[in-house]
Every structure is written in C-alpha cells, then in structure tokens.
Design goal:
The complex is a heterodimer of chains A (122) and B (256).
Chain A: H1 3-21, E1 25-33, H2 41-51, E2 61-66, E3 70-73, E4 79-81, E5 97-101, E6 105-115
Parallel strand pairs in A: 1-2
Antiparallel strand pairs in A: 1-6, 3-4, 3-5
Chain B: E1 24-34, H1 37-52, E2 56-61, H2 68-79, E3 85-91, H3 96-102, E4 108-112, H4 121-128, E5 138-142, E6 159-165, H5 172-175, H6 177-181, E7 185-189, H7 202-210, E8 218-220, H8 230-246
Classes of the chains: A alpha+beta (122), B alpha/beta (256).
Chain lengths: 122, 256
C-alpha cells in the first residue's frame, strides 16, 4: 500500500502551502483522482486520517473527486468513456487511443485558516 | 460559497463552517499540483543526471518471482563485454539480489525499503550516488516485486520494462492496468516452461496488453536459454544507441 507515502507527500505540500500563506490551519482539502493513477481513494482517505495527526492539517476534512477515464481515438478522432483496463475507442473499437482523463493524482484545492491580521491570498 | 465571508464550503468541510468568525479568515487556494510533485521533481533530476553521463536507466518491474534478477544475470552474461552495466536493487529486506548481481562482476547497490512496497525517486537518487556513472552505460533499477505500487512512482528511468512470467495468469495486464499501461516493453519470462503449461496463452496476454491502448512490444524470453534472450538484447541495444545519439556532449559542470 503506497497510499501512506502519497499522503505523506500531500501533508508536506500542505505544510509548505500553509507556511507560504501564513495560515495556521488547513481546514479542507480537495483531491482529484483518476483510477489510472494507481491510487485507491478509500485507502488514501484512511491513510490521511493517520498522516494528518500532529500536522497543520490535523483537523482538515478530505474530499476526493473521482474522475472518469476518457480516451480520444487516434483512428476515428472521437472521444469516449472507457474502463481502466479497456482503453479502446467506444466508437470504432480501435486500441490506438490517447488518454484524455483518468490518471490524475492532483491536489486541487486547500482551504486555509489565516489569522485576521494577515491579508488573505488566493 | 459561504454567504457571510465568501469562503468555500464543501460538503466535506461544512462541519467546520461555524468557526468562520472567531477572528480567522478562511481562504480557499487553488493548487492544482500533482500529489507526487516532490517525487516527480526528483525523478526529472535523476533522468537528467543519467543522461548527462550518457547512461541508459531501465526500470524493471514485475510481481515477486517473475524472474527479474535471473533476467539481469543472464543479461549481464550476454552483454557484459558490450556495455558497462550497473544495478540498483530494491527489496524490502536482504542483500541477496545485490550479492547475486555482484557475483556476475558488476556493481550493485541494494536499497532496503523496509516496509515500503516500492522505490521512489529519492531512494534511487541516493543509490545513484553510490555508483560511478562515468564508468557505466546502462543502469538497471530492479524495483520491488509488486505490480501495484511501483507503477505510481517515476524514478527518473528512461524506459519501463515489465516482466510477466508464464507461471502467472495471462490476464495480468487487465488486472494491473496502471503498471502495464506504463510499460515501454513487456517481457514474457520463463517461456521455456510454456511447453509444460497448457493454460497460459501468450495471445491472450497480448490482447490484454493491447486493450490498455499500449503499443509496447511483448517479447518472449527464457533467462536459462540464451537464444531466447535475443529480442530483449536487441531492444536494449537499440534503445541504448538511440539515447547515445541523443545525448549532448558532456558538460563540464553537472547540476546536482
């Protein structure tokens, strides 16, 4: 299970972000994850509960947006939704497709609590 | 959006919303960075480092027991006079694999990952500094035997090679799409056993690989039968030659 290592990297990013913005706490985190990132959202969610302890994100809520797998066909030019292990064109069935979406592993947004005196950024 | 102060409230954080006006300001920041940003940066550095020394880096991945170390032993025996080879070995525990490689007369660095199920770019970076890259042409990185976790971590390799042994199921590419999709080459290993195993269909393995929109070649190998390695060795020669043709003249100062 590599979700713990990925959570640790997430926490590191949040610590840096909070320090840069003068935030005392991170209250919410939004991730966007596609199935072809190789990361299991449920495991990541559980790992986050452990990894955040004692950090700036100790009380942060985690929301994970799951993105669909979409491919664009290099043969017929159209795009379609696909399954992670069947990335064929939904229209003509060709296997020469390009992944348009589905491998994301992204920190999309963080909600920060910034003490009043500090001007809000972002 | 919160009506009072304009901060972003999501279903996930609305329980915290009542704290808004206790002398704090809430700000939502769009970040849009990869969760593996730090690893990816290190991987880019590793790749540039290999390249500046004219070294081809190949990341070998497979399930445990598919024959990565045996393939390396046979490859060293076959190409040892043609290329100067070095190996980075990733295992949870033991130096056994590095010892097997060193016994073939090439330098090997063992990374013991402890409980970590994969190598990452930082571990490889440390290991690279234990190798003399100026004295090498190819570095093989033997990843931890695991078809799941290693797929998510760029190490700074130039090529990913995944081994699928014929003692496994031919549907492995369908079961582990992330790993096989990331492969530049898939090696069917232990093919000398095919005559004994009537339940492994190489055509089915190829079909499962193509269903991942992968155009990676699938080559048959058998580490214990030298002729069966020809396709793999030729692939290595071609990739190494391509990298060499593409490598800029050595720079006097290499950014670390």
């Amino acid at each position: 299970m590599h979700e713990m290592a990925i959570c640790q990297a997430l926490i590191d990013q949040l610590e840096t972000l909070a320090a840069d913005r003068g935030a005392t706490r991170v209250t919410g985190v939004l991730l966007r994850i596609g199935p072809l990132s190789g990361v299991e959202p449920a495991l990541l969610d559980r790992a986050f509960g452990l990894a955040r302890a004692g950090t700036v994100a100790e009380q942060a809520s985690l929301r994970i947006e799951r993105l669909p797998v979409r491919v664009s066909c290099r043969h017929c030019g159209r795009s379609s939704e696909a399954a992670p292990n069947r990335l064929l064109c939904g229209h003509c069935g060709d296997y020469r497709t390009r992944l348009v979406s589905g491998d994301e592993l992204q920190l999309a947004r963080a909600e920060l609590e910034i003490p009043d005196a500090v001007e809000a950024a972002g | 959006m919160c009506d009072t102060c304009g901060c972003n409230i999501t279903p996930g954080n609305e329980v915290l919303a009542h704290r808004h006006h206790e002398g704090h300001d809430h700000t939502a920041v769009e970040v849009l960075s990869s969760l593996l940003d730090a690893n990816d940066h290190q991987a880019v550095h590793n790749r540039a480092h290999f390249r500046s020394h004219g070294v081809l880096a190949v990341n070998l991945m497979s399930s445990p027991g598919a024959g990565k170390t045996a393939l390396l032993e046979a490859t060293i025996d076959a190409l040892g006079r043609e290329f100067r080879i070095g190996v980075i070995e990733g295992d949870l525990e033991t130096e056994n694999d590095a010892a097997r490689i060193r016994a073939r007369g090439v330098p090997a660095v063992q990374i013991s990952t402890g409980t970590a199920c994969h190598l990452d770019a930082h571990m490889v970076h440390e290991a690279v500094h234990a190798l003399d890259l100026d004295a090498l042409d190819i570095v093989f990185i033997e990843n931890v035997g695991n078809l799941v976790c290693p797929a998510s971590f760029d190490l700074g390799q130039h090529r990913n090679v995944t081994l699928l042994s014929v003692t496994e199921g031919a549907d492995k590419p369908a079961k582990y799409p992330v790993m096989f999709r990331a492969s530049d080459l898939v090696l069917l290993t232990k093919c000398d056993l095919l005559e004994l195993l009537d339940d492994f269909d190489p055509a089915a393995a190829l079909a499962a690989l193509r269903a991942l929109a992968s155009e990676a070649p699938l080559l048959h190998t058998a580490a214990r039968r030298a002729p069966a390695l020809a396709g793999w060795l030729d692939w290595l020669r071609t990739v190494a030659a391509g990298l060499r043709a593409d490598t800029p003249a050595p720079q006097p100062a290499v950014a670390e």
